[in-house]
TrEMBL record:
Lineage per the UniProt record: Bacteria, Bacillati, Actinomycetota, Actinomycetes, Kitasatosporales
EC numbers: 1.-.-.-
Organism: Actinacidiphila bryophytorum
Cited SUPFAM superfamilies: Glyceraldehyde-3-phosphate dehydrogenase-like, C-terminal domain, NAD(P)-binding Rossmann-fold domains
Protein name according to UniProt: Streptomycin biosynthesis protein StrI
Keyword Oxidoreductase on entry: yes
Length: 347
């Protein structure tokens, strides 16, 4: 297969290495807004660097989108027009209107669009999902998630990221629904700024907590912070009437027990998302190549990204207005976006 990769940043470079090593990839084409960076990543992966237009003109068999978020929706629409199966890192766009427009373009063209929620390909989350589905926990009543970065991102990144709920916690919102099989119905969110001023200047928070109500009355909490020098910490706990399980509690979890009989961590803490989820990213890309060939059904469709974004949007409303927000309230705004888009198309 000839694969196009747009975006040669940190995750793009990782995907380039994965694609280069994959037996189904015969040629890798790399494009980036920074032509020098594209050449560097292409050379390291044995690929060929091209401008974006030339990459599309080369007629790849599939496209991997790992560019800056602002370009995602446009590239998804262009891939759909070209009839290319596309994989896109989350989020599709930083707002509902852009997300809905890109999804409508892909669906109108009948195009394949797989979204990059790599936690779905992690063995721990998959095992937790199986445990819930098999009823091993009894009646599920409580879920807790944690997402903590070891250090904050650069100041220039924050205004373009969409904020802590859309950029970081969106993974928790997706995995909550995927593992439990239940949609989020309401959120109550809070956020604080106790670190660098550039978070506040961007209207963002550097630490956040969310109380979520899921279908069937299951309660969940999701916390996130940009400041956790102990290491990269991503965990999930699920509790039911008959048992409880945890994901992400292992030898490298950056969590120290102060109980007198507790053992020290046997390994170094996770340093970042590629360290923690490297194998999940590779499994995700392997799956996309099979989806692109028509050998497997799409396990993470564009609508999944919209559902997670709706929860993130509800959190932003809740944080600013200091009230519980039903997700249905934000869904109504998404429907309005679709209606306006269709009226524009008719006009």
């Amino acid at each position: 297969m000839r694969i196009g990769l747009i975006g040669a940043g940190r995750i793009g470079a990782f995907h380039a290495g994965t694609l280069q090593a994959h037996p189904d990839v015969g040629e890798l084409l790399v494009a980036d807004a920074d032509a020098g960076r594209a050449r560097q990543v292409a050379a390291a992966a044995g690929g060929r660097a091209l401008p974006v237009d030339a990459l599309f003109a080369a007629r790849p068999d599939a496209l991997v989108i790992a560019s800056a978020t602002a370009a995602h929706a446009r590239l998804i629409a262009r891939a759909a027009q070209e009839g290319l199966p596309a994989f896109c890192e989350k989020p599709i766009a930083l707002d509902l209107a852009g997300t809905v427009a890109a999804l409508d373009a892909a669906e109108a063209a009948g195009a394949v669009l797989q979204i990059g929620f790599q936690r779905r390909f992690d063995p721990g989350y998959a095992a937790a999902r199986q445990a819930v589905a098999a009823g091993k926990l009894g009646r599920l009543h409580t879920v807790r998630t944690v997402s903590s970065d070891p250090a904050p991102p650069p100041a220039a990144y924050v205004p373009l990221s969409g904020g802590l709920y859309r950029d970081c916690l969106i993974h928790d919102f997706d995995i909550l629904t995927w593992v439990t099989g239940r949609a989020v119905t309401e959120v109550y969110a809070a956020g604080t700024n106790v670190g660098a001023d550039y978070f506040r200047a961007a209207g963002d928070a550097d630490t956040a907590a969310v109380l979520l109500t899921l279908e069937g009355g299951v309660l969940a909490t999701a916390t996130a912070t940009r400041y956790n020098a102990a290491g990269y910490d991503v965990r999930m706990e699920l509790a039911g009437t008959d048992g409880q399980v945890a994901v992400g509690v292992a030898a490298r979890t950056p969590l120290t027990s102060v109980e007198p009989d507790a053992a020290a961590l046997p390994g170094p803490p996770w340093s970042g998302f590629l360290d923690r989820f490297g194998s999940a990213y590779r499994a995700e890309m392997d799956t996309f190549l099979r989806v692109a060939r028509g050998a497997e059904a799409n396990p993470c469709e564009g609508r999944d990204a919209l559902r997670a974004l709706l929860v993130a949007e509800a959190c932003e409303v809740s944080r600013h207005e200091r009230r519980p927000v039903p997700v249905a309230e934000v869904e109504a705004a998404a429907r309005a976006c679709r209606g306006e888009a269709r009226k524009g198309a008719v006009a």
